[in-house]
Amino acid sequence: MSNRRLTIWCNNDFTAEQQSERDLLFRGVAPHQLRLFLPGEIDAHPALQGAEIAFGAPPAQAVCASPALRWVQLNTAGYTSFDHPQIRETLSKHGTVVTNSSDVYAEPCAQHLLAMITGLARGLPLALEAQRGDHTWRFSLRPSLPLLNHQTVLILGYGAIARRLIELLRPLEMNLIALRRDVKGAAAIRVIGVSELDQLLPEVDHLVNTLPANAQSEGFVNAARLAKLKAGAVLYNIGRGTTMDQNALIRELLDGRLAAAYLDVTEPEPLPPDHPLWTTPNCFITPHLGGGHRSEKERQVRHFLDNLRLFERGAPLRNRVI
After folding, report:
1. Secondary structure class of 230 (helix, strand, coil)
2. What is 106-285's CATH topology?
3. 236, 262 Cβ separation under 8 angstroms
């Protein structure tokens, strides 16, 4: 494999300010041929037919129509458009491997969740509201601030984001549990299956949703499960908005049964200015910032190049999803 000159199709978007990242990609793929397209460029999809590798955001149907493709690396952690039985079957027949960029986004998403969890515990949003509002010296908040030690965190999902978050939370001595559809193999913490979830929810102080969007996860955090959560619990969503019943969440927050919700993802996105989530008490929203970081594009490229070296040697690829 290492002696073959391959054709690499790419529609990873580079802005004018990201010339150094673009140059890094061109240098790193040598001696292979790189065909770089703009997102949405009309000639891009037919060009997949002549490539062995694709990097960026190729449409799943166009990939299925390109049997010569050996490997697709997505520049996102999400791969919803590929996560369908028919597409998986087609790619399997073609021998096409799909990897995502989970390693690029696990760290910033985990840090975002850490900021959410610790920020509310220390009263930061409420203090900021007072600063931006009536300038009330809210010293009365002090007795209400909890210590996180020994509180129970249940993470929905046990992917790269969850595993990194677990590492960040360990020093706080929290009780860490993860939910996984297939409970198998060794894990750093207690892992439960879906059948155990409803029984555990009344003990949960922090429910962290990292679930991707797919047919199995749609509406997973439903009204019944929200109602089972421990009174005073806090909910966090950094997965996808479609995994949660937002209307039920609004009701729980209005009733005051849940202490707060932190949402980095919503349904729809962008969230319309008149959507009731904006004004729901103790609902704190960030506009899908979780995976963002200054070196995002560079880390996308380096992750691809690291996998390219593995591909050249015939070694297993990182972040394989199909």
Report:
1. coil
2. Rossmann fold (3.40.50)
3. yes
Q: Quick one: which H or E segment has residue 297? A: helix 296-313
pLDDT higher than threshold 60 for residue 115: yes
**Listed residue (277, 221, 230, 271) closest to 254, CA to CA:** 277
> Do the domains 106-285 and 7-100+294-313 match in fold?
yes
Q: Which tops the pLDDT comparison, 146 or 181?
A: 146
For residues 77 and 56, give the distance between their C-alpha atoms in angstroms, rounded to a whole number.
11
* Pick from 21, 129, 148: nearest CA to 75: 21
* Rounded-to-integer distance, Cα 234 and Cα 205, Å: 6
13: amino acid identity, one letter: D
| CATH class for the region spanning 7-100+294-313 | alpha beta
Query: pTM above 0.90?
Result: yes
- Check if the beta carbon of residue 191 is closer than 8 Å to that of residue 213: no
Would you kindly state where each structural domain of the chain is located, as residue ranges? 7-100+294-313, 106-285
d(CA 77, CA 198): 28
